[in-house]
Amino acid sequence: MSKTILVVDDSSSFRMVVKLALQKAGYTVIEAADGQDALTKLNGTKVNLIVCDVNMPNMDGLTFLKQIKSMAAYKFTPVIMLTTESQEAKKAEGRAAGARAWVTKPFQPAQLVDAVNRLCV
């Protein structure tokens, strides 16, 4: 059975790039446009890993991360933040909120797939 990854980013073209890379690596992908949309899509659905942007409308990635880490079903789901943000302060905030990895855009799809393969259990 293939593993399911939730990709949360407000850019549909960016979600497409990530989705294609992950599908090529054998993963099933669910897409969400922002944190709010992602919460509706999760709704008890089993996901093995989440790839999430930081800067998004409605609900940003760090707020979303804090919300899911407080939910029993997703408390231990690994989250990779995939963002243009590269400041240490943001990374520290992400780690404190429960992010397991931080990949900075622009990124190499292979680099992301490697991180996913390492964290997706």
Automatic annotation (TrEMBL):
InterPro entries linked to this entry: Bact_response_regulator, CheY-like_superfamily, Sig_transdc_resp-reg_receiver
Keyword Transmembrane: no
Domain Response regulatory: 4-120
Name of the protein in its database record: Response regulator
Organism: Roseateles koreensis
Keywords on record: Phosphoprotein
Domain of life: Bacteria
Entry-annotated residues carrying 4-aspartylphosphate: 53
A Pfam family it matches: Response_reg
Key word Signal present: no
